[in-house]
Design goal:
The structure is a homodimer of 233-residue chains. The first copy, chain A, is α+β, with helices and mostly antiparallel strands and 233 residues long. Chain A has helices spanning 57-69, 109-114, 132-146, 163-174, 180-189, 215-223, and strands at residues 9-22, 27-34, 44-45, 47-50, 75-82, 93-101, 117-121, 161-162, 193-200, 208-213. Chain A binds a DNA duplex (27 and 27 nucleotides) through residues 162-164, 179-182, 184-186, 201, 203-209, 231-233.
DNA sequence: CCAAAAGTGTTTTCTCTACACCCATGT
DNA sequence: ACATGGGTGTAGAGAAAACACTTTTGG
């Protein structure tokens, strides 16, 4: 029954680009790992692993993310497959990268420690092994595109967030400043946010109202062919 | 020296989604193959093949496209990797799809015949094997996105083309009508087209001026962060 | 009472859209 | 001379951009 038997077989891996957003430092961060095995032991890398016989690529990516963070059902998307022969000095490995957007505060800290993982500022990344830097660049590009067309940003913020925090996030992704009034006008006119009674009181005396993202309203808009473009400024 | 030796190995394939544009019928077409081997012999499929030990994914895609069309140095881009366990009934195969934009008139007709390939209208595709229809849908989505942001359309037209032909192409990609005056205003204002002396005289008595795409001007624009959006109508 | 961050509208500019007639020429 | 497809401009609507002051309250 086994067809194609004369063709070569390859090691296939998955690497996860885990994005998080640090509200205090107003920075995008990546969850990186100090490799504990050869080759490139002790160097920084993305979280990765090999694809097993009985799992799909998507399953492999979910498994690796779970082992690292203890999280399931995370917003994750395949981004690109890297197939150069010499990309991994250990062996010829074909690797598919996945990017995940997670809420920093949600991850299991013990697992993180256990895996030797740390959050690192995207703006000041250490040297990464192999072609992992390319993986990050490409994923960031895609993120910047997608943020214009989908409300992906909310996956990076806690359930409750202030408009200032949301704007800071968008500024971090776009890498430029956005006019406060235009931003609020636009984001509120989309009608996807629900204003809460509660205020955030850590960062200002006046306090800023919390909002939350309303998934149901978004689903409605989507069905009506709504365009979530955020081309403010 | 061979590390990772305890991990499973997989068949890895590449499938090529070859887009062409038929100027006369004003339709996007796909170059499809009647499979000559098992499983699914005699069914329509994309052009595909297995990745060898000594070639990268990109090389494999180029090779397969070359074997099919006799073309090299074609605009080709990786689109997505399909990794479900059961996607190919013959065996567990992980497959990366590539999409290519080619000029229909450029391909080697003998090779095409030899491979049992035919151009088929995208609007009226036959049933395709496995998940090849998904591959096409995804690639088409990407094409529709990219056309807004890059001048990819020119890869589908001959060197010399009229504005009417260019507009027809955009209408075929977007799947809707575009206002003639708005289209011309916008496309000409980008300053990427060079008007030739010569006229196309097949389709009208008056004749339509030929234009050609000016690659150098485009490179300039790109460096200045130019946005090639074509949101006409 | 004052420093610090939150919150709020209007005007101007630009881009998108809708729309209809003349031109050139082969038959 | 007429049928056929190629080519052209303008006015109105809507979206994006620029811009500065008032509010709240903990210390």
């Amino acid at each position: 029954m086994e067809l194609y038997s004369e063709y070569p077989r390859h090691l296939v891996a998955v690497d996860c680009i885990v994005f998080g957003y640090d509200i205090l430092e107003k920075e995008i961060k990546l969850l990186l790992i100090k490799r504990s095995f050869r080759p490139a032991m002790g160097k920084w890398s993305l979280a990765g692993g090999f694809v097993m016989e009985n799992e799909s690529l998507d399953d492999a990516a979910s498994r690796i993310l779970f082992q690292l963070t203890g999280l399931r059902d995370v917003y994750m998307e395949q981004s690109f497959t890297y197939g150069d022969i010499q990309r991994d000095p250990g062996a010829r490995v074909i690797s598919t990268s996945y990017s995940a957007l997670i809420k920093i505060q949600d991850i299991d800290r013990k697992l993180k420690e256990l895996n030797g993982a740390q959050w690192q500022s995207l703006a000041r990344l250490p040297h990464l092994i192999f072609d992992h830097r390319d993986m990050v660049s490409r994923a960031l590009n895609v993120l910047q595109m997608q943020v214009k067309v989908k409300p992906v940003g909310f996956a990076l913020l806690p359930e409750k967030f202030t408009l200032v925090q949301l704007q800071n996030l968008y500024e971090a992704i776009y890498q430029r400043e956005i006019d406060k009034r235009n931003f609020r006008k636009k984001i509120l006119s989309m009608n996807l946010l629900e204003k809460l009674e509660e205020k955030e009181r850590e960062t200002s005396k006046k306090g800023a109202f919390y909002y939350k993202f309303n998934e149901e309203r978004y689903e409605l808009h989507k069905k009506q062919g709504f365009d979530f473009s955020l081309d403010v400024n």
